[in-house]
Design a protein that fits this description.
Shape: flat
Number of domains: 4
Number of helices: 19
Distance between the termini: 78 Å
Keywords: Cytoplasm, mRNA transport, Nucleus, Repeat, RNA-binding, Translation regulation, Transport
Helix content: 25-40%
Strand content: 15-25%
Number of strands: 25
Radius of gyration: 29 Å
CATH topology of the largest domain: TATA-Binding Protein
GO molecular function, one term: RNA binding
Oligomer: single chain
Subcellular location: Cytoplasm; Nucleus
CATH architecture of the largest domain: 2-Layer Sandwich
Family: Belongs to the RRM IMP/VICKZ family.
Protein name: Insulin-like growth factor 2 mRNA-binding protein 3 isoform X1
Largest sheet: 7 strands, antiparallel
Length: about 625
C-alpha cells in the first residue's frame, strides 16, 4: 500500500514540480513520478511515508493553482470492500463512527491505524462491494466537526490473491508486516475518545495556577495524564467559578482531576486560602436520575464507599442554556478522587445506554428538520431557530457543553452523521404544520412532569416550542400555568396533549420519556414504552391500514411499534378517527412520522391541480 495516486494535477505540472513539492515537505519517495494528463503516480519507501504524503498534501497543497488530491493507488480489480477513512475528528467516539458507517451496509471490521497526525485514521471492511462504493461516495468530503473526511480504497489482498498472474502481469498484493498493536486482532478495541469527557468547576482564583506560567503547568498535566484539557476561562466573565473539560480515557480523566485538585490545594496553602475546596462535577440532567438511583440508593452507596459527602444542585437551577447539574463532593483529595471515578462511571454507563438506543433506532426517523431540533453546535444548546435571535444571557453555560441539551444528551455530530441523509423539512418550502399528539403517562408521574409550581412543564413547553397540557378528566384540562391537576382522578393513566410541529413533538415527547426513566417510573432494565394517539381523517384511515392490513403491518415491522386503527370507530365532530401507537421513544417517533407522511400524501392528492396555463389561477370555463 505504498504506491500513491496524485489527482487534480494541472496540465502544466511536471515530474520535477511534484518532486520539488515532496522535497519541500520532506516526504521520501522511492521512485520517479509517472505523470499522466491530470494525474500522476509515485512509490513511497513504506506505508508510513505514504500516509505522511496523504495527510500533508491531500487537499492542502496547491500546484499551479490546483489543490492536489493524494490517496493510495488501488487497481480496479482490487477495489473491493476495504476503505481507509482519514481526517476523523480526534475526539469522535467509536459509537458515533459505528453508527455513521452502518448506514451504508454491514461493517465486518473496523480498526484504527496508528499515525503521527492529530486526526484519526481507520481501515474499514464492508460486507459487499456496493456497500463500500456507496460509503466511499457519501463519506468522502463529508464534514464532521469541521473536519472533512478523506476516504479512499485500500487494496483487498483477497481479491488480489485470487487474480491469476498471467503472462508476467502485475503480481497480487502482499500484506506488509504484522497487525498493529492497536488493532482488534491483538486485543481490546482502541477508542478515538473514551466514553464521556469529565467536566468540573474550579474557583476562578485558581485558574492561573492550573494554567501556570505561559501554560507550562497545564501542558505538563496534559502530557502526564494523556488528556486534552480545555479551560473555559473566557466563559461567564466575572463568575466565581470556571468550567474545565477533560477528554481522555476514564483513567486519564481521573488522573487529571486528581492533579488539578492537588494544584488547587497547593495554591490554597501558598495564598493562605482557608476555605474548603470541594470537587464540583458537571453532569447533564438526563443522567442524574440514574446516578441518584431509586430512593437515592446509588448516591448513598458512593458516599459510604468513598467516605465523602455528595450533594446535587436542584432542578430549579436548570435553564434553557444550562442543562447541567452540579455534583458537589466534599472530602479528602483521595476520597474525592474515588468518588469522581464512581460518579463518572454511572454517568458514562447512562450515556452509553442512550447511545446504544440511538444507534438502534435514530437512523430510521425521516422527516425531521435537524437544525430545528437544536442539537447542533453554533448556538446555545437546545436553542432551535424559533429562539435563535435571542443570545444567551451573561454567564449562561452555553456554547461549550459537551452534550447539548437533547433528550439523550447526544452530541450534534452524531445526529448530523446518522440522521441527516434522510432528514428534510416536512412541509417543503413553508413552515411545518402543527400536529397534536395525545401521550398517555402513568397517573403517578403527573407531578414529576408538571414540577414544583408548574416549573418543569413550563420549561419543557418553552424548550420544545410546543403547547403541553395534561388532562384532568375527559373534559377539564390542566395547562402549564396551573400548579397541579385537580384531585379525585383515579385513572391509572393520564393524557398529555402536545401540540406543535414535528421538531417540537420530538423534543417534548423525548423529554417526557426521559423524565419517566429518570424518576424511576420504569425499572432500570425496563424500556419506557408509552401509548400515543394521533387523529387522522376518517377517509384516510384505510390508507394507514392498507389493503388487507398490509400498510399497518409494514409500519409495525419497520418501526418496532404497535400500530392499531381500532375497528368500528365513530368519527368525531371533525370527521377524524384515532390511530394508537405503542412503543419506546424512537419506535413511536418513527411510526408517527411515517403516518404523517401517509397523510401528507393523501392531502397532496386531494389538492386541485394547477392550471395548465401555469399562472397558478383557476380560470372559469367558457360555455
Amino acid at each position: 500500500m505504498n504506491k500513491l495516486y496524485i489527482g487534480n494535477v494541472s496540465e502544466e505540472a511536471s515530474a520535477e514540480d511534484l518532486e520539488t513539492i515532496f522535497e519541500q515537505w520532506k516526504i521520501p519517495h522511492s521512485g520517479p513520478f509517472l505523470v499522466k494528463t491530470g494525474y500522476a503516480f509515485v512509490d513511497c519507501p513504506d506505508e508510513k511515508n505514504a500516509m505522511m504524503a496523504i495527510d500533508i498534501l491531500s487537499g492542502k497543497v496547491e500546484l499551479h493553482g490546483k489543490l492536489l488530491e493524494v490517496e493510495h493507488s488501488v487497481p480496479k480489480r482490487q477495489r473491493s470492500c476495504k476503505l481507509q477513512i482519514r481526517n476523523i475528528p480526534p475526539h469522535l467516539q467509536w459509537e458515533v463512527l459505528d453508527g455513521m458507517l452502518a448506514q451504508y451496509g454491514t461493517v465486518e471490521n473496523c480498526e484504527q491505524v496508528n499515525t503521527d497526525t492529530d486526526t484519526a485514521v481507520v481501515n474499514v471492511r464492508y460486507g459487499a462491494k456496493d456497500q463500500a462504493r456507496q460509503a466511499m461516495e457519501k463519506l468522502n468530503g463529508f464534514l464532521m466537526e469541521d473536519f472533512a473526511l478523506k476516504v479512499s480504497y485500500i487494496p483487498d489482498e483477497t481479491a488480489a490473491a485470487a487474480t491469476p498472474n498471467l503472462g508476467g502481469g502485475k503480481r497480487g498484493f502482499v500484506p506488509r508486516g504484522p497487525l498493529r498493536s492497536g488493532s482488534p486482532g491483538l486485543g481490546a478495541r482502541p477508542k478515538l475518545q473514551s466514553d464521556v469527557p469529565l467536566r468540573i468547576l474550579v474557583p476562578t482564583q485558581f485558574v492561573g495556577a492550573i494554567i501556570g506560567k505561559e501554560g507550562a503547568t497545564i501542558r505538563n498535566v496534559t502530557k502526564q495524564t494523556h488528556s486534552k484539557i480545555d479551560i473555559h476561562r473566557k466563559e461567564n466573565a466575572g463568575a466565581a467559578e470556571k468550567p474545565i473539560t477533560v477528554h481522555s480515557t476514564p483513567e486519564g480523566c481521573s488522573n487529571a482531576c486528581r492533579t488539578i485538585m492537588e494544584i488547587m490545594q497547593k495554591e490554597a496553602l501558598d495564598t493562605k486560602f482557608t476555605e474548603e475546596i470541594p470537587l464540583k462535577i458537571l453532569a447533564h440532567n438526563n443522567f442524574v436520575g440514574r446516578l441518584i438511583g431509586k430512593e437515592g440508593r446509588n448516591l448513598k452507596k458512593i458516599e459510604v464507599d468513598t467516605e465523602t459527602k455528595i450533594t446535587i444542585s436542584p432542578l430549579q437551577d436548570l435553564t434553557l442554556y444550562n442543562p447541567e447539574r452540579t455534583i458537589t463532593v466534599k472530602g479528602s483529595i483521595e476520597a474525592c478522587s474515588r468518588a469522581e471515578e464512581e460518579v463518572m462511571k454511572k454517568v458514562r454507563e447512562s450515556y452509553e445506554n442512550d447511545v446504544a438506543a440511538m444507534n438502534l433506532q435514530s437512523n430510521l426517523i425521516p422527516g425531521l428538520n435537524l437544525n430545528a431540533l437544536g442539537l447542533f453546535p453554533g448556538g446555545a444548546p437546545g436553542m432551535g431557530p424559533s429562539m435563535g435571535h435571542n443570545a444567551p444571557p451573561p454567564g449562561a453555560q452555553g456554547g461549550y457543553s459537551s452534550f447539548g441539551s437533547s433528550y439523550f444528551g447526544g452530541e450534534g455530530p452524531f445526529w448530523a452523521s446518522v440522521l441527516s441523509a434522510s432528514s428534510q423539512p416536512l412541509s417543503g418550502q413553508g413552515q411545518p404544520e402543527s400536529e397534536t399528539v395525545h401521550l398517555f403517562i402513568p397517573a403517578l408521574a403527573v407531578g414529576a412532569i408538571i414540577g414544583k409550581q408548574g416549573q418543569h412543564i413550563k420549561q419543557l413547553s418553552r424548550y420544545a416550542g410546543a403547547s403541553i397540557k395534561i388532562s384532568a378528566d375527559e373534559v377539564r384540562v390542566v395547562d402549564a400555568n396551573q400548579v397541579a391537576p385537580p384531585d379525585g382522578m383515579d385513572a391509572k393513566q393520564r393524557m398529555v396533549i402536545i401540540a406543535g410541529p414535528p421538531e417540537a413533538q420530538f423534543k417534548a415527547q423525548g423529554r417526557i420519556f426521559g423524565k419517566l426513566k429518570e424518576e424511576n417510573f420504569f425499572g432500570p432494565k425496563e424500556e419506557v414504552k408509552l401509548e400515543a394517539h394521533i387523529k387522522v381523517p376518517s377517509f384516510a384511515a384505510g390508507r394507514v391500514i392498507g389493503k388487507g392490513g398490509k400498510t399497518v403491518n409494514e409500519l409495525q415491522n419497520l418501526t418496532s411499534a404497535e400500530v392499531v386503527v381500532p375497528r368500528d370507530q365513530t368519527p368525531d365532530e371533525n370527521d377524524q378517527v384515532i390511530v394508537k401507537i405503542t412503543g419506546h421513544f424512537y419506535a413511536s417517533q418513527l411510526a408517527q412520522r411515517k403516518i404523517q407522511e401517509i397523510l401528507s400524501h393523501v392531502r397532496r392528492q386531494q389538492q386541485p391541480k394547477p392550471s395548465p396555463r401555469g399562472d397558478g389561477l383557476a380560470r372559469p370555463s367558457r360555455k
